[in-house]
Design goal:
Elements (H helix, E strand, L loop, with lengths): L10 E9 L4 E7 L4 E5 L2 E5 L3 H15 L5 E6 L4 H6 L7 E6 L2 H10 L1 H4 L7 E5 L2 H5 L6 E7 L13 H10 E10 L7 H14 L2 E8 L7 E8 L13 H4 L7 H6 L5 H9 L1
Parallel strand pairs: 5-6, 5-8, 6-7, 8-9
Antiparallel strand pairs: 1-2, 2-3, 3-4, 9-11, 10-11
Length: about 270
Amino acid sequence: MWPGVALSLEIMETIYSKKSKFQQIDLYQTRHHGKMLVLDGIIQLTEFDEFTYQEMMTHLPLFSHPDPKSVLVIGGGDGGVLREIGRHDVVEKIDFCEIDEAVIAVSKKFLPELGCGFDDSRVNVHIGDGNAFIQKKINAYDVIIVDSSDPIGPGEVLFKKAFYEGLKNALKPGGIIATQGESIFMHQEWVGTLAGITRELFLVQAYANIYVPTYPGGNIGICMGSLGPKLVTPARQICQSIQDQLKYYTPQMHKAAFVLPYFAEKLLKES
């Protein structure tokens, strides 16, 4: 996905390496970044900076919604997003759909600091295709988070307009979606495509940028759509007990994530 570009991390040990039904799954112990999960040769997370992605992917949409009772997560078999959702007592139901149960098993066994997300009694796990799952849901969720891999292999369908139409139909009135939106530096074509789809389908649309050092370009985006609530400012206050558990998200970072470089603003407007 990144011709001519490489990121190098020194590997001390291969902890797990096996091809599942859908993809190659590798887990390494690195010299500096702790454990590193890799799918089909693409870094998904490292213990060093996983919190940046997990926190913003979760708390941007959840704090944008005034009262998120029901949440759906598609993808994210590592469990990190579930861990962060679990910090919100207001959430009553969490549906989780992941196509590759092998990723869940690896995370539970080797990445307990993320896999602990599956221990929440509110979580209902569904193993299957996220696109097929969403097409059967109507007015079911306040917030939907799509923690997808990149648009190759099993994650490719999650970047299509039909999938986003399904997401919209599955939302309750005033609902919000947040999807993995690629990098404004490395994947401008995909960013433009996703922004165009969400602008066409949703009353309110926004794109957030977050820092993740071990992702190519050092950043990744979150493409968001809303059926009512504003996205660029929190709708609820964060209590101090939650804030003290976090490393990245704050109400100030919530607002700042939507302030983009000029070239990115132009890209989104022209998409």
